[in-house]
Write a structure and sequence with these properties.
The structure is a single chain. The protein is built from 11 helices and 11 strands. The chain has about 350 residues and is an alpha+beta fold. It has a domain of about 140 residues. The strands form 4 sheets. Strands 1-3-2 form a 3-stranded antiparallel beta sheet. Strand 9 and strand 10 form a beta hairpin. About 40% of the residues are buried.
């Protein structure tokens, strides 16, 4: 591995080597976005014959690894709406080298990109392995988070209200035959689904996926509701699953003009100019447990939106009331509204991480 390329140095931020490497995961989780950049002419990009919006998980696996990491502590303004700055000060170069050494040693697993945002500016970018500035990166559970963001946009647009979080999910599904559903299904609320506490339980972990190949949209959920174990208060315990976020996506699909896919393109990804690819489930809805792919810069924009209370640019895109629930530190540790909440120590103080 050759030495990292440091593009610019300016006074301001003082971060020791050990601090930046130890706190880096905190920054990534708090901002919800990794990325990396340098001079526009040198940025690692997809081959010109590849369409970023056609980059499925399978296509991404065909990309060769970069020969060396691409690093900049003075990211370039690409005209994509992200102001840029610089990460410098005593120890910056040593800290970046420490990051690269730790990454090479496997400390961060398969790290493709890192993006740091501070005081309203993008101050550090790095790409490695299959990371490309214009290449969407397959996201696992961030897809659940993006499903929650989609719901927040729907609330902001008045498709439903914040109080509706405590309504039963089947109250939004007019095609469900309630005479055939299992006992307790009628008690599952949006808030339950947003906390992975729907209580839906099936014979095996692949049961719901198999049904998705036979039934579409509300018919899929009809089949789920008929085949779950009875939903009791005791069953409404946390269980991490892709079914609960699919309940949320189904409601967006019902309430939004067009389909949930149309809504995401127009009102969520489209509002920030995101470059992305989002696969469908067999049941016809966008995937919710995992399955979306966004460029790192696009993910950063959603992170900015969250820490700004749902605002991006000059527009309130997400429900401020919903974002207060998401960002509140009063919930303690756990999984709420499809966001992980953790308390960590950094620089001698406790940090609430989302």
């Amino acid at each position: 591995m050759s030495s990292p390329r440091i593009i610019a140095k300016a006074p301001g931020i003082q971060i020791a080597s050990t601090l930046i490497t130890r706190s880096l995961p905190l920054v990534l989780l708090a901002i919800v976005a990794p990325l990396a950049l340098l001079r526009a002419s040198e940025l690692p990009r997809l081959p010109s014959d590849l369409d970023p919006r056609a980059q499925t998980y399978a296509e991404q696996q065909k990309l060769p690894y970069l020969d060396e990491p691409y690093v900049s502590n003075a990211p370039e303004d690409l005209g994509d709406g992200l102001p840029v700055g610089a990460l410098t000060g005593p120890g910056t170069e040593q800290a970046i080298k420490a990051l690269l050494n730790d990454d090479k040693a496997g400390k961060y697993s398969n790290l493709d990109s890192v993006l740091l945002w501070k005081d309203g500016r993008l101050i550090f970018e790095m790409y490695n392995r299959r990371g490309r500035v214009d290449g969407p990166h397959y996201t696992m559970s961030i897809t659940k988070t993006l499903t929650s963001i989609t719901l927040a946009r729907a609330i902001q647009l008045g498709l439903l209200r914040i109080n509706d979080l405590d309504k039963p999910v089947i109250s939004f599904m007019p095609q469900i035959d309630r005479s055939k559903i299992r006992p307790g299904v009628e008690t599952i609320t949006l808030r339950d689904a947003l906390s992975m506490k729907s209580g839906l339980r099936f014979p095996d972990k692949n049961f719901a996926r198999a049904l998705g190949g036979k039934y579409q949209r509300q018919k899929f959920f009809q089949a789920l509701f008929e085949n779950t174990e009875p939903v009791t208060p005791g069953k409404k315990q946390y269980r991490y699953t892709g079914t609960d976020p699919s309940l949320i996506m189904m409601i967006v699909d019902i309430l939004a003009p067009g389909t949930a896919r149309d809504f995401i393109a127009r009102e969520v990804a489209g509002k920030v100019g995101a470059v992305y690819h989002w696969d469908n489930q067999p049941c016809g809805l966008p995937k919710c447990g995992a399955g979306s792919s966004f460029t790192a810069r696009s993910l950063l924009k959603f992170g900015i939106m969250l820490i700004q209370g749902g605002r991006y640019g000059n527009e309130q895109l997400l429900s401020a009331d919903y974002l207060k629930l998401v960002m509140s530190s009063q919930k303690g540790e756990g999984y709420f509204y499809h966001f992980h909440n953790r308390q960590k120590k950094a620089a001698g103080r406790r940090v609430h991480m989302i």
